[in-house]
Amino acid sequence: MTENKKKLINRIVGFIMVVLSIIVFISFFETMRISRYEDDSVTVTGEYDVTFNGKVYDDVDISTYKFPSIKKGDHVTYSFVMPETHVEDAVLTLYLDHAAVKVFYDDELVYEKGNPNSRMLGYGYVNVNLPDDYAGMNVRVEIDAIENEGLSSLSQPVINNVRVKFHNYLVDNSFYLIVDIAIITLCITIVLLSFIFTRIMPALKHLAYFGMAFFMMGLYEYCSYNLIWIFSDSLVMRGYMEYLTLYSGPFFLTLYFYKEFFERESARTKKLYKVILILQAAFPIVALILHFTDIAHLPELLTPFHILLFVNVLTVLILLVRSMLRKNNTHKHMVIGLIILIVLAIIDMLRFNLYMHFMLNRMRNYVSYLLFGFFLFLVAMIIDFFVNQRTKIYKAAHAEAMAKLANVDMMTNLANRRGCENAFDELRRDDKVFGIICIDLNYLKLTNDKYGHQEGDKLLVDFANVLSSACNNDTYTVGRMGGDEFTVIIPQADKSIIEATVESINKKCEEVNAARKPLPISFAYGYCMSDDEKVTSVADESDMVERVYHVADARMYKHKTDMKAGR
Q: Per the confidence metrics, is the pTM higher than 0.70?
């Protein structure tokens, strides 16, 4: 099977797996939707008596009547009569927006949350238990606004079965819950792996910024979609978590992008981005100081935060487009995902401020689109990271292979002359005693002339294997200087080590020669150490390594001459 056919089959299998995963995903949520309980909630409609800062509004429909926008310090009271209905395990659900509340049943206080001097009460729905005989009961709700975040219309209370409400809420938000938990879990994993394996893979330390940013954004969306209600109905906790994660998250993302994109930009651009980075780092700290000194509470700082974020987002978007236009851009997947995220962030900011300033009555239904942007960008980021890491690994392996080609004799797989010269340079940088063994392989010319160059090459390879096996030490350099000349370079040597090495080579030769044909392996050798008297007592302008090598080489030729005379 050809390589192209294998790739085609792999792509088809991958496509089928993706389609099957999508089908399973959709089937799961369709099954969840079918399991939804019948909604038996009752909205309390009819006429309400409302008092707004002392002004009385009799018999009004609060779902449509437009009151003045509720501001910090405003006091609102509305009362109504519970309808003649019956809901099991009933609770009265009220929508609150940064407001303290008191609920009275027949003039008896049954629920209280916060007070007019509170700093953070959050926004969302609260549930007040109802007695079984609630029909016809008079209910009075008193609200004290603590932030300038109020609505121009009041929310109609709803009677809910608490078990049905909780079950249906889980069903309706199961998709968002699973996606958000997946994002948070993945980001925690990324951060932990970054700290654990940063020494092995330094790029993971850089990825920790990304993990922290999306962990913060995941918690923010967790609050924005009110998924936190599944685990806790505390609006205060939701409020602090939502604002602090929103104000802190962009700092880590900005830090990541500065390292990844802007180090290659001009000095002016880098200076601008550093200013933005400093402002984003300081913003949550300043926000907390202002909040706890009652100068400006966290919700009131949304507008300056949006301005800072918009400038940051616009800067990133412009530079990312420039990055995409560069031919050397290596982050195409991440750039595409980031552009999607930025576009959704801009849409979200515009929608939020539009609702806040012109459509206040719709703010309670505001839902951020960023969760989908976070998810898509997270996937794009992971793909981009591993694609780039694969490229880096390939380049490193290629560079290592090229370095090996430059320093290794391809026939014997030993160091070539250049590799040996590099080892000599290492000896020059070290003051310790070293030794060099020069070796000349016998019978190479005879083997080539009588049996052919194929057998001559085999003789070289066999002898190289003998040397590699006998000199199995990571600190040694075993090399082929050329032709039939070899060398063993031993740093931090003494005479006993060198003699033991020569003895080991002889033993390996005997083992190989027992079965080797047509000619046995035979060699002549000579060695010298840097503290040898012949090296230290002679005045020579050459460096120590050259002198040691020349003495070892001369002794090798002497040994070769003696061997010839003895044959």
A: no
